[in-house]
Amino acid sequence: MSEMLHDLVSWVLAWGESPFGALALFILAFWESSFFPVPPDGLMIVLMAGNPGFVFAFAGLATVGSIMGAGLGYAIGLKGGRPVLTKLFSESRVEYVERQYQSRDVWAVSIAAFTPIPYKVFAIGAGVCRLNFRRFLLASLIGRGGRFFSVAIMVTVFGQQIQHAIENYLNVLSILFIVVLIMGFLIIRFAIRRN
User: First and final CA of the chain: distance in angstroms?
Assistant: First the structure.
C-alpha cells in the first residue's frame, strides 16, 4: 500500500516537469478537496521552484482549484453522507455533531483547510452537517488560500533552497501558524472584553 502511494506521489510530482504542470496543479487541487489522497503542495512547490516568476499565480491556481473541489466535496456530503452516518451512528449523535460543527463552522473549516489533515474530510463533513454554503466557501478561501500563499511567500523570500525545508516541515509550519492565529484571536478577544 505504501509503495502504491509512493508511486502515486512520484507520478504527481513528475507533472512539475511537464508543460501541463499548471493544469495538473489545478486538477490535483480540485480532486484533493473532494476525493484524491495526494495533496497538491508537493507539485505546487516543484512548479514554484522551477518558475519563480509565477509563484503567486500557482498559489492562486491551487486555491481556486481547491475551493471548487471543496464545493464538490460539500455536494457529496450533502447528497450522500448523512445516510451513511446514520447507519454507523444514532440519529441523536449525528445531530449533536452537526450542531457542534455549525456553531464553529468558520473556525473549524478555516483551520482544517490550513492543516495537513485531508481537507476532503471537512468538505464532505460540511455538506453532511449542512453548513451554510457561502460561509463554508469563505472559510475554505481563508484556510486554503492562507496555506498556499504562505508557501508562495516562503518560496519568494527564501528562494529555491527552501524547497526541501517546506516539503519536509510543511505540517509543522501549518500547526505553528494555527497556534499563532488562535493566540492572536484570543488576545483580541481578551482586549475587547477588558475594554
Answer: 56
User: Could you tell me which residues come within 8 angstroms of residue 25 by beta carbon, excluding any fewer than 6 positions away?
Assistant: 15, 40, 43, 44, 47, 58, 61, 62, 65
Crossing angle of helices 41-50/163-194, nearest 10°? 110
105 touches 67 (CB < 8 A): no
The per-residue pLDDT for range 93-147, each reduced to its tens digit, is 767 767 777 777 777 777 777 766 677 778 888 888 888 899 889 889 988 998 8
d(CA 103, CA 154): 33
Q: What burial class does residue 75 get, using C-beta atoms within 10 Å of its C-beta: 0-12 exposed, 13-18 middle, 19+ buried?
A: middle
Between CA 168 and CA 175, with CA 169 as vertex, the angle to 5 degrees is 150
Q: How far apart are CA 39 and CA 166, in angstroms?
A: 14
In the numeric block, which cell numbers belong to residue 15? 507533472
